[in-house]
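Second attempt. The first submission of Butyrophilin-like protein 2 had a stray character pasted in from the spreadsheet, which I only caught after the job came back as garbage. Lesson logged: always re-copy from the clean sequence file. Corrected sequence (413 aa) follows.
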Amino acid sequence: MYFQTKLLSFLSLFSAFTVRSRSGPLVAPLGSSVVLLCYVNELLVMEDLEVEWRRTDSGTLVHLYQDGESQAEKQQQEYHDRAHFFTDQIQHGNFSLRLDNLRAEDEGRYTCRVYSQQDSGETVVQIKHERLLVSGSDRSVSAYDGEDITLSCSVDSHITPEHINVSWIRTDGDILVLLYQNNKTLPDSSDERYRDRVELFTAEIPKGNFSLRLKSVRTEDKGVYMCLVSAGGLSANATVVLEQLGFSSWHVAVLCFCFAAGSGAVLLLCSLIYCRSKNTDTSSIIWTLQVSLVFCPNICMFFAFMLWGFTEGSLHETVTCCALYFLRPVMLIWALRYLKYLQDNHKSWIRFFRITRELAVLTVIVYSVLFAYGWRISAHDTDNKNSISSGICFGIVVLSSLFLSEGKSFYMI
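This time the job returned cleanly.
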């Protein structure tokens, strides 16, 4: 045995050794333990063998093996009790270092230097702590109503997609737009206003692309959207701003009707005031202006709200306002001082649509929309009590309205 050791020592004098380590950076999560590989394939003489690990950038001593043992007292303070040799493996050419409780400041390059009687060598190991880098769009996104847009979100990480959770959230109101969890998209988790309008690009997810496609953009979609990414104990986010949307042809039509209603009402009112200020007999003209002032602006606003409903999908507001503008002319015509110019059939028609009946019709229309909305929500509820209660309430409203419509009329003449 003694002779073999001497022979190996003699042969090693004529052959240099190569210090090896892993290729590529070592990636690990914060708080974990990592092993920095450093080894030689040749047997080295243990006498006067020295191994040191240092930070490549600063030269800080991480750990030292000298005089046949670890020199823990010579370590830099931040590595004390965290950096350890595999002492029993050193005689076999394994000089790897275990670093416990990985910190963010541990990221960097480390040099393993091996000194022996016959030669010396070194290798470099790079540590990268696991991180999530999430990036969105540097510029705000804008679109016309009804268009499909993409809100960018890319994740640069060594973590595989199946371990990543992504939540798209609208920050004003903390509204959940879409959730990606357990390696699949959960469309049912989306808020009702975004359901069936949002999706991820499935083929791009393995590349770290979690961009959101928002279909049929509406004006109320304007806001700040956050792409929140989490994996284990790591989390990061990026935001995308959806700017003021441009006007579509529907919006232009709504504006035209509103402008026609406003300007037409002012023009008719001025003409009516002018004609009434005259002492001449212009009752027929006044009658025409009065009827036009009652009907024309309301008809314009009726169509404006109808188009607004088609554009924005706000059913409750649309139906209520359309019903109001549709019934208002009949309400206002009661206040006319010129009922004597109406024909008998017109008078009968106006008296038939008295205040109580108009309010009954308006009440039924408004509450029917609210009932439909509540019924649609309760349809997802396994408890049928809410559906039954809402149906009973709606029935009571309808019966009350019918009873009211047959009540005593109050003429405003």
